């Protein structure tokens, strides 16, 4: 009798173990397949990876694990398991995004960080480079420039952000005026999509019209279509020379005219950056570089190319602008130029000195409307009684509109959030965009339909379904309704 | 009694008329809604519009009508009717395509020709232009250059091909090495998709990362997603100066080395064109420009930019190449440069003098493999006993491989067709593409899966369904299985 009962219980025990194996938790499965050192479940790690650089509060969850794949095979395996087990996947580059693109929003989800996938190999003769997503943009740039080659995209975060993140967000930067954004440099991709399928797109060639351009479509898709495991990037010849000029404006309305004159003079500047009076004051209060504080605005112009070509172009631009009655100062050497560009790059920290809270929007206006739109932006700031600082890439109409507030003052913070709605509305009224560089992520979801319309959103959702029918890749991003 | 019978018959009569109205033929409906002058059903017109410039025989049908819309509203109405009535739509620009993209393949289908939609309006301050699809590329270029602006894409057909066709095929050309292909210049589109829905994408701004980039995705989709009714194009500053150099090669293997040296010297040529010995001989036999007939190959280099910059760059390139032992000739004036470029542009007609039939393929190799691949292409020609002439945009690895044959010799034509298969195989073996400029259309359908793989084709088909679930936009193109 005892024997029978014992058998019975042992059967149940074995059955339970087998059931347990069959019903193993998704995270255990991931650990089993990838190994413990690639799937981290400590609460410290999980909390750390639930943030990115987004300056305002967003919906956020502590993920159930952080995964650090080391190869395409790892990525394929993890997507297979997550797809079977319906585990949401939140991909992450350096976490330097400003719209919550890398923030996990579901507790049952996992963060996939690519920081261990950072190999790259340059092909000088072909002027291409194959990169893993975790490569830091700046490191790549430094490396290829020594070979006479050039990878232009330069988001402010370029010293720490990764190529994977740059591709996911289609990163821009000042130099994109002349050289184009990240998308223009991505020739091919390997990505893991639904069910762990491997999608290879493009080739290490500049021209390729065989079928729909899935490569470029992936760029800027904010991790919602799949996980990029490698990319082939185009490199171009590194310009031999570079020069910087500073233009000072008494009147804001002259800025637009100056930009048009430059852009139709046969000179193609590599950057045309704008700072308003408050931005200038903020820089001078933070780390003074000797900018005059009595002007309404300034332009920083960068010209690159051959040695003689840069001289000629600088000369053309200087003549053009002085004939408009503007003050032009040309940086006499590398150090002076560097100082001016540091002023521009230090704007972020400079603003942090003014107020504890900052909403940095990156709206875009068609260039022609800038002179008209900037005063209207100021009206919004006045209406909501907020400090607003405007700077940005004026050559492509991409303005960084910064609404500053005191983080401890919840009422002021709310005012800033309401003001942002009007800022977006203004950009759309002028046929612009709610985002030129930062992406939609979590923070701009509700505005996307305003810009794209119902048909646009319908098409986007349809395409998302093709790559990710279970909505497991970065769910909750881009679309406000799921 | 008679009265009752008469009533009965008159009822039937009225019923028949109503039924007839309800069951009106699709073409009659189109005529009714758009008007007789926009819907042409004469057999002459229908036959005329069943061809494009594709040099080899393709599957072809005489369509049931040719429609000439004059506005977006016309396009919307016609798509609505065609979608209701399940009438296939074959969009057409100038019909200058080489892969059958504009050829109707179903008798019940209609050709939609955009030749009456050719308005455009330039915004100089914003450096953008809004164009209707029927605008001829060359006319637009001439117009904007007078304003100090520049629209670079330059397919060989640019003097007669249209912007709509160029967008549908993502047209390239020599200058795309430096300036990028058509896609890089399309900032926004209005398109009519399934059920006559109007899709607006993008904005007249350079940077825009709000949502998936549907704009660029439409470019190169060969009319399979919808009908483009207007596009916003980016214009850039027109370079002030331009110069041309001719480089002569005794040995083919030096060509690749020369290209790498140029592209890592800090000089970014606006074009790098290659002609092999047979191409040179063909030009000299057709319209002599004094090219030496004893060399293995030549390079035509174009450099543009500022006046002094061009001089410096020419000098750099000349020194570099002569130090490699190559002969370099610099065009002394505009007329000499023009003559050299005419030689390159006349290659098409020159080849027509050699044989009556020509298959002109536009495969792409990563630049590094060119020196290796060209002799292998020659082997294919030898194997099939065909005359092969190679020229093309060597800077981006895009080679025009011309297989020449006698049109009356069916056996030779078949040999040429078989040789093409091996040409494509070679390009793919070297990680290249089956098409850099011409698109897939009808003639390259069977090769697309080779290049993209099963997952690639699956994704493409899925996306096609989002825009066109009834498969009515240019059916039979791109995909070999429907």
How does this model look, in words?
Two copies of one chain form a homodimer. The first copy, chain A, is α+β, with helices and mostly antiparallel strands and 482 residues long. In chain A, the strands form four sheets. Chain A has a seven-stranded antiparallel beta sheet, with helices on both faces. The first copy, chain A, has a five-stranded antiparallel beta sheet with strand order 5-6-10-8-9. Chain A folds into four domains: 92 residues, Uridine Diphospho-n-acetylenolpyruvylglucosamine Reductase, domain 2 (2-Layer Sandwich), CATH 3.30.43.10; 118 residues, Uridine Diphospho-n-acetylenolpyruvylglucosamine Reductase, domain 3 (2-Layer Sandwich); 107 residues, Alpha-Beta Plaits, CATH 3.30.70; 75 residues, Alpha-Beta Plaits (2-Layer Sandwich), CATH 3.30.70.2740. In chain A, strand 8 and strand 9 form a beta hairpin. Chain A has 16 helices and 18 strands. Chains A, B: Its cofactor is FAD.
Task: Offer a few descriptive terms.
Uridine Diphospho-n-acetylenolpyruvylglucosamine Reductase, domain 3, homodimer, 16 helices, alpha+beta, Uridine Diphospho-n-acetylenolpyruvylglucosamine Reductase, domain 2, 482 residues, Alpha-Beta Plaits, 19% strand, seven-stranded antiparallel beta sheet, oxidoreductase (chains A, B), five-stranded antiparallel beta sheet
Short recap of the structure:
The structure is a homodimer of 482-residue chains. Helices cover 39% and strands 19% of the residues of chain A.
Q: Which strand-content bin applies to the residues of chain A?
A: 15-25%
CATH class of the largest domain in chain A: Alpha Beta
- Largest sheet, spatial ordering of strands of chain A: 15-12-14-13-17-18-16
Largest sheet descriptor of chain A: 7 strands, antiparallel
User: CATH topology of the largest domain in chain A, anyone?
Assistant: Uridine Diphospho-n-acetylenolpyruvylglucosamine Reductase, domain 3
Which chain pair has the greatest contact? A-B, 100 and 100 residues
The percent of residues in helical segments of chain A reads: 25-40%
CA radius of gyration of chain A = 25 Å
Please report the number of helical segments of chain A: 16
**Termini of chain A, distance in Å?**
58 Å
Strand-pairing-aware structural class of chain A: alpha+beta
Coarse shape of chain A? globular
Number of domains of chain A: 4
Mean pLDDT of chain A: 93
Query: How many beta-strand segments of chain A?
Result: 18
Q: Which residues of chain A form runs of ≥5 with pLDDT under 50?
A: none
CATH architecture of the largest domain in chain A: 2-Layer Sandwich
**Oligomer kind:** homodimer
């Amino acid at each position: 009798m005892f024997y029978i009962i014992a058998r019975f219980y042992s059967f149940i025990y074995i059955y339970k173990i087998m059931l347990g194996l069959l019903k193993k938790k998704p995270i255990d499965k991931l650990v089993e397949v990838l190994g413990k050192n690639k799937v981290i479940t400590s609460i410290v790690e999980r909390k750390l990876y639930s943030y990115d650089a987004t300056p305002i509060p967003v919906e956020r969850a502590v993920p159930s694990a952080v995964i650090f794949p080391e190869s395409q095979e790892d990525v394929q395996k993890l997507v297979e398991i997550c797809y079977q087990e319906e585990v949401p996947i939140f991909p992450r580059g350096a976490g330097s995004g400003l719209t919550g693109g890398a923030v996990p929003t579901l507790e049952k989800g996992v963060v996939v960080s690519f920081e261990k996938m950072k190999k790259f190999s340059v092909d000088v003769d072909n002027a291409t480079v194959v990169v893993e997503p975790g490569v830091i943009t700046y490191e790549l740039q430094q490396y290829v420039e020594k070979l006479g080659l050039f990878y232009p995209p330069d988001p402010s975060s370029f010293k720490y952000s990764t190529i994977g993140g740059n591709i996911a967000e289609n990163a821009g930067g000042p130099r994109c005026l002349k050289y184009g954004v990240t998308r223009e440099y991505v020739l091919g991709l390997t990505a893991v999509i639904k069910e762990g399928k491997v999608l290879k797109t493009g080739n290490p060639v500049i021209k390729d019209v065989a079928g729909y351009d899935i490569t470029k479509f992936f760029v800027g898709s904010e991790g919602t279509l799949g996980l990029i495991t490698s990319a082939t990037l185009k490199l171009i010849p590194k310009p031999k020379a570079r020069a910087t000029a500073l233009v000072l404006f008494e009147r804001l309305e002259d800025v637009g005219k100056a930009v048009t004159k430059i852009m139709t003079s046969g000179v193609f500047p590599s950057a045309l950056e704008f700072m308003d009076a408050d931005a200038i004051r903020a820089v001078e209060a933070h780390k003074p570089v000797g900018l005059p504080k009595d002007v309404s605005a300034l332009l920083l112009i960068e010209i690159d190319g051959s040695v003689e070509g840069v001289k000629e172009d600088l000369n053309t631009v200087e003549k053009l602008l002085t004939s408009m009655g503007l003050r032009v100062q040309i940086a006499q050497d590398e150090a002076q130029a560097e100082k001016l560009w540091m002023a521009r790059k230090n704007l972020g920290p400079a603003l942090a000195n003014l107020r504890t809270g900052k909403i940095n929007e990156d709206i875009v206006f068609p260039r022609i409307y800038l002179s008209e739109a900037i005063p209207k932006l100021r009206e919004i700031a006045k209406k909501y009684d907020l400090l607003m600082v405007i700077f940005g890439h004026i050559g492509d109409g991409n303005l960084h509109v910064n609404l500053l507030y005191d983080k401890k003052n919840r009422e002021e913070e709310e005012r800033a959030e309401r003001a942002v709605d009007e800022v977006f509305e203004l950009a759309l009224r002028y046929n612009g965009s709610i985002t030129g560089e930062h992406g939609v992520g979590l923070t701009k979801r509700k505005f996307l339909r305003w810009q794209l319309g119902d048909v646009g959103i319908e098409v986007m959702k349809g395409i998302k379904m093709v790559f990710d029918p279970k909505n497991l890749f970065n769910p909750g991003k881009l679309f406000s309704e799921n």
